[in-house]
Amino acid sequence: MSNIAGRVREVFRGDQRVDADALIARLDAVRRFLTAVDGLLPDADLVPAHTLVERAGTRLALSRDHTVVALAGATGSGKSSLFNALAQLELSPVGVRRPTTGVTHACVWGPLEGANHLLDWIGVLPRHRFVRESALDADDETALHGLILLDLPDFDSVQRSHRLEVDRLLGLVDQVVWVVDPQKYADRVIHDSYLREFHRHRDVTLVVLNQADRLPPAEVPRVMDDLRRLLDTDGLTGVPLLATTAIDPAGMVGLRNALERTVAERQAALRRLAGDVDTVVAGLDELVGSTRPAGGPDDTTINGLNRALAGAAGVPAVTEAVERAYRHRAGAATGWPVVRGWRRLRPDPLRRLHLPGPTGDQADPAESLLAATSVPDPTAAQRSALGLAIRAVADRAAVDLPAAWPGAVTSAARSRLGDLPDALDRTIAGTDLGLDRRPLWWRIVGGAQWLVTLAAVVGLGWLVLGYALRALGLPALDNPMVGQVPLPTVLLLGGLLAGLLVAALTRPVVRWAARRVRARAEQRLTARVAQVGDEYVLAPVRIVLGSYAQARDALRDAARR
């Protein structure tokens, strides 16, 4: 038994009083438990708790000045005779045929008006309600004012509706007086199906051996001892056990005194509800367990989820496109001006994925509403890896949870799986890939390329002009010499060679810078993808774990007295 269950002390309260405020606090804790687990645990497991909250709220809202006591027993036990003897009126039919009592009869000590709402809730028909109030009684019945005594149908009736009615009423009354007779006091039906189930309601349970006059006086103690042994076996140690006989007023004194004490204490309803809370808490205990869970998946599991999400989002394809786009743009900015136009005719790799193009612009916003990017869909292997990663998160988070919770954790982890593709796509489209700005060194190298190209063009033009003048028979230009080489030739060849040299020196720098940009883009994309994973996978799991912690705390509070 867990620590929580251990705090539900199954002791006989006896004369202990139940504090109404403490009971209400325990009921509120059960209500908080139900709120915490709403939608997470099977409804079938929560029916007793819902029933308790509803019944307790209604019972406490109704009259606290009345105590509802039910006489329950098998056919022939004489409970209707006891009912009539206590009322000193012939109110409930008595006979030997089965079933003797087919409907519930109620006798109210004191004005009926104050008890009507309570009897309406219990379900006793108005024509079966009686008042034990007579001017001839003087003050004889004052000690029982506030008592509502019920004569229930026989629980072993051949009509199933009678037993269902008994079971319903046993869940509503404040106290139960079980009536057995010398012939059937050991019957397994009453012990296995009823008395044993009331072991957490011992303080509102009373057992009477009726028709004790049918036994020889010497046999009564022996039968009472045997019945006490059976009650102890049923977990009803300490429950009052009386011998009664309806035909002799002296045989009713003990029972009447017990009822008077119950009415005077005004504790039966509170004790009954306290026992109901004990029963519900014990039933719910296995749903929360005794150990506190670790609190969620570890870093290794989360990192595995992020890697799977990155693969499904197409991060490798995007980072590869980022590297190629950087090299493409760097070549267009630092390459030889003569061939730059050819490079610009080639599409930018990022534009193919509907990611920021050469100018940093996005695709058409209206189009982005339908498809944020054109990143390739994840492969079957990537989808499988993502499913396994999500399952690993759920398994790790639920490793210390009771059996009822792993399913809820798994459902939470997968609850937004259908929204993940669009969320990942939007995240990829909205991530700054680090290509918005043109590095300064691009401008410097590009300017140098323009200078050497201009020199080559000037040299070429100079040479062409000289050849043209000579072809026309005009005086040739006087070409300055650089050493033994004419200046135009130096400008042409020097510009060409310098352009090639700058391109050759720039190419490894571009490749190195492209790899850095790719690594930075991968880091940013992975961080953004991790945020999606946190929102769409981890956050729902944390909500379930938080609900579990709230449910556990609430049930612990409900178990306190």
Automatic annotation (TrEMBL):
Entry superkingdom: Bacteria
Single GO term (MF): rRNA binding
Domain G: 69-210
Entry protein name: ABC transporter
Species, as recorded: Micromonospora ureilytica
Cellular component, GO annotation: cytosol
Entry keywords, A to Z: Membrane, Transmembrane, Transmembrane helix
Taxonomy of the source species: Bacteria, Bacillati, Actinomycetota, Actinomycetes, Micromonosporales
GO BP: ribosomal small subunit assembly
Record field: transmembrane: 447-469, 489-510
Pfam families: MMR_HSR1
